[in-house]
User: Which sequence fits this backbone?
């Protein structure tokens, strides 16, 4: 419903009708539409983090391969990327106009970023590398590239197949900000 | 009005009232709100391209410096970045749901990208460098990083001052994809 009608366009009634729940059931679980979107974010990022963690044992010693594998995970969810982008970009716009939503979104994005940062630190350590920038900065850059590139891929799917920019440039960035640790 | 109320929330009446024009004056210049937003895009990108071109003679021989200068230009327009991001991100979402808007937006983004690509080719040639990826890919990456980073900067201005991610990572990307030309 959010992807179809927009965050503001989708009413709690629409959502309940589509899900086959009553308004009472909605409000006994979520205080507002904001909370529902944030719960969707949480579920999506939790799933992604779990998938990345599952790759670790196999790939920890090959950071280049791991980056490819992580980018592959993002690609695999591509059938959902359009819906996900619509929801996520729209809620971000909502947050830019609503300080309370911004606080909740930032808190959640920070938790996701911290988990990813810990994974990056773990991987670089296992593979005998150290980063020349704070791991969190690298994670922020990966997120920026991914979100910016996704917008281009969705607007021009033929010219920018999902993942193209990430696969081309992020390994170079990783190479540029890492060196063998002493 | 677009930044305040959203693309869908701002009516032609709202826009005319704020601008002090009649509906007649609006429709004699623009066929729709879409056309007005696209005209705003055109004006903004034209101004940016002009500013970059004005830097060229001085900086053409120092591509690193030029990149910094271009990023500086983006930062300088920072007071408008919030408004601009709201309009631009919202129209992109509109385009993802409306094929006609997508076609018009893609056409305009393509023109902007082509101008930037020509500038990049001109600069690398003058400075005796060649790119190891197509210049247009590099331009797409710069745009992706800028748009993705701007979203983070607007959500978390204290943690990600405008331009931080671009200034940290884009010079590394340029370094990684360029080499002295033979």
Assistant:
């Amino acid at each position: 419903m959010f992807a179809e009608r927009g965050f503001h366009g989708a009413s709690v009634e629409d959502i309940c009708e589509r899900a086959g729940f009553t308004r009472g059931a909605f409000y006994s679980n979520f205080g507002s539409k904001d909370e529902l979107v944030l719960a969707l974010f949480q579920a999506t990022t939790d799933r992604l983090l779990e998938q990345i963690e599952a790759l670790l044992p196999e790939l920890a010693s090959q950071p280049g391969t791991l980056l490819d594998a992580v980018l592959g995970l993002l690609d695999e969810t591509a059938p959902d990327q359009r819906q996900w982008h619509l929801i996520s970009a729209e809620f971000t716009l909502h947050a830019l106009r609503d300080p309370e939503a911004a606080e909740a979104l930032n808190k959640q994005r920070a938790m996701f970023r911290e988990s990813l940062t810990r994974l990056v630190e773990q991987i670089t350590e296992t593979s005998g590398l150290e980063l020349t920038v704070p791991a969190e900065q690298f994670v922020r850059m990966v997120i920026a590239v991914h979100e910016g590139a996704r917008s281009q891929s969705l607007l021009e799917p033929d010219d920018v197949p999902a993942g193209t920019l990430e696969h081309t440039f992020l390994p170079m960035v990783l190479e540029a900000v890492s060196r063998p640790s002493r």
